[in-house]
Amino acid sequence: MFMMRSILVAIVFMCSAPLFAAEHPICISLFSDAEVLGNNAAERIVEVIKEKQQAGQTSIVLGLATGNSPIPTYRALRKIFKETLLDLSSVTTINLDEYIGLATEHPQSYHTFMFNELFNELVATPENPRGIKRENIHIPKGALQTERDLSQDERALLNAQFPGPTGNLTKQEQILVAEHRANAYEALIKQVGPIDLQILGIGRNGHIGFSEPGTPFDSTTMVAKLTDNTRSVNAAFFDGNIQEVPEFAITMGIHTILQAKEILLIATGQSKAEIISKTLTSPLDPSIPCTSLRLHPRVSFYLDNEAASKL
Ligand code: GLP
User: For the whole prediction, is pTM greater than 0.70?
Assistant: First the structure.
């Protein structure tokens, strides 16, 4: 029953008209609420997995996002996995981004978020080999407090640039290692990719992943400085304390995101209405990173009524 696309609640609403020659239309599906949207997004994920499996593709790559927007989708996906015979053993996941400077186990790290919201119930176990193999789950590593967070290679890199005792890492040292990790993550995406389906949320300022306003459209995985706007919005997850929100993150760049074969962006709530409207109507402009999505041939926006209210 779950596998049947929910009826009467999803309306294929419109495809945007391209404003410039290089652009593609974005197809918009409108849903009555975030729960129904999540069910349909999960069904699209399952559909892509099954299509690729039936076509004989041996590895299916999902790009995954954090934030409130995909939570109902992940809930629905967990339910499908539990209640059906869905086989995820050939799935590889690549997350978009991670804060720099939080321990992996920090309650607000994206690593913790992904395991709590999705992977704890989807990871393969000896009893349930249909799950995703642990080694095929990829999230950028942001832990960078002390030397203990470094691999041998990273320690060597750091010693070459900043000789002498380290202990707690300085911001400069953290960024040097994080840039190294970002390059390695981009190489990993190239190696296991291309991403078959990329799930995206959207920041109120138009960021995708943590590719903030001003990020060039040809950017690849990088260290991003978070804007004050993003840090103040995300402070809600850190007991409202902006000082606790990391200043930097490792994130896929815009070019990296646009390499995915298909992109599904989820936006819910009134706070996203303005940026969704701008995404479709503003000129292509790095100061509104999400406008870059109009350069991709296969993008869907799944919106609830509120997020679509300014269209
Ligand atoms: C964070 C993430 C983004 C996400 C955005 C929106 O900044 N880095 O990937 O899209 O938040 O989050 P939410 O869905 O909670 O509005």
Answer: yes
Atom of ligand 1 nearest to the CA of 251: 8
Q: Which residues line ligand 1 (CB under 6 A)?
A: 65-69, 96-97, 201-203, 209-210, 230, 234
Q: Which two tokens stand for residue 197?
A: 């389906």
The predicted structure's pLDDT at residue 121: 97
- What are the counts of helices (DSSP H) followed by strands (DSSP E) for the chain? 9, 11
- The residues annotated as belonging to the active site are 97, 205, 207, 212
Mutate to test the pocket of ligand 1, among 95, 109, 207 (most ligand atoms within 8 A of CB): 207
Using CA positions, which residue lies closest to atom 10 of ligand 1?
A: 201
How far does the centroid of ligand 1 lie from the alpha carbon of residue 174, in Å?
23
pLDDT at 17: 67
> Which residues make Cβ contacts (< 8 Å) with residue 107, sequence separation at least 6?
none
Mean pLDDT confidence for 177-195: 97
Higher pLDDT, 60 or 161: 60
pLDDT range class, residue 9, cuts 50, 70, 90: very low
Q: Which of 64, 11, 67, 68 is nearest to 36 (CA)?
A: 11
